[in-house]
Amino acid sequence: MPHFAYKGRDRGGQLVAGVLEGADSGAIAGLLFGTGITPIEITPTVAPLSAGPGLIERLREPKVEHTEVLLFCRHMYTLLKAGVPIMGALKGLQESAENKTFSRVVQEIRESLDSGHELSVSLARHPRVFNPFYVAMVRVGEMTGRLEEVFLRLFTHMEFEKFMREQVKSAIRYPSFVVAAMALAIVIINIFVIPAFAKVYQGFKTELPVMTKALIAFSNFMVAYWPVMLVGLLVLAFGFRFYINTARGRMAWDEFKLKIPIAGPIVLKATLARFARSFALAIRSGVPAVQALTMVAATVDNVHIARKIEAMREGVERGESVLKTALATGIFTTIVLQMVAVGEETGALDDLMTEIADMYQREVEYDLKSLASQIEPILVVSLGVLVLILALGVFLPIWDLGSAALGKK
After folding, report:
1. Helix, strand counts (H, E) of the chain
2. pLDDT tens track for 230-280
3. What share of the chain is helix, strand, coil (3-state, %, to 5)?
4. Contact in structure between 84 and 75 (CB atoms under 8 Å)
5. Distance between CA 91 and CA 43 in Å, rounded?
6. CA distances from 102 to 98, 124, 154, 191, 376 (A)
7. Whole-angstrom Cα distance, residue 201 to residue 191?
């Protein structure tokens, strides 16, 4: 998502500033209000890079992983429930943290608390570790006095997200390995194998088949220009990465991912499962629907879907029902819309959204299990076509030469 630099004042009137991710400036404003900060200025900016003293050391520091934040939630819940003061809990977590980066983050949170800031404001100063949804939920826990309960719910939520990511990674591991092996085989064959056969064919003194000529021409091109091709691939890779880091590029890429055959529907279901789980968590914690939609839009990890959720928020702000706004997005199935309608009518929207998340999760698990069986025929056919082209190109001249020799006899 695009980044926005903000300036605002917290409840004590102190000026605060930082950088947050969001679909647009309106979403950022909603997140800031949710954490008790009144925004003064919100402007688009690039992704933040740590600066100041210790820049080289910070660049060398290990990244804070999802699992570490997950365990942070669990430990905070356990310690706060046992009656340990929050400063003591943070001190213990700082000393026990194996990741030096995370230990430094916890130390800075303690220093911020010592300065009189609230926990949510202190967490918001580390957007690379604690996303806006996480910060907003902690703010809700502070306002309601149920901070330990919020940490437990966040732990369950993040555990679900971790499970979904691992499922997707395990599903694409086999196809990725096969595609990489095929690409490596093509490079080796064109650089080493076909040139050897080309030298043999030069002594035939005969017209080569079209397929063989094409293979030899492509092989000669790769041998002669492989440095240029390598540089071109690197330029394309970095150019693509730069493009998807822009607001327009990220939107186009996230929308394209949902249209990819076979994988697109799985990505959509996984994203909607995260949305439903996050929305249910926010509603159950007492967050109003408008603010909950703003918070959730920052967690779906897909700008295209985030814009749809922002459209839902705008509709709810105009007084429309959640059902009507969900119907307008065009991304939910009929059965999901029916469950949303029942949830609004009965006042149990959080329970119904949890059931929707469970339903999407089951569908994603089933689709991921059958993903290999769906992709395998495509890979087998692609591999067969590759082998056929190589076989025809390499062996047709030998076949023609053998046929000619038999004809002379």
Report:
1. 17, 3
2. 899 999 999 999 998 888 888 888 888 888 887 788 888 888 888 888 888
3. 75, 5, 20
4. no
5. 35
6. 8, 15, 18, 47, 41
7. 16
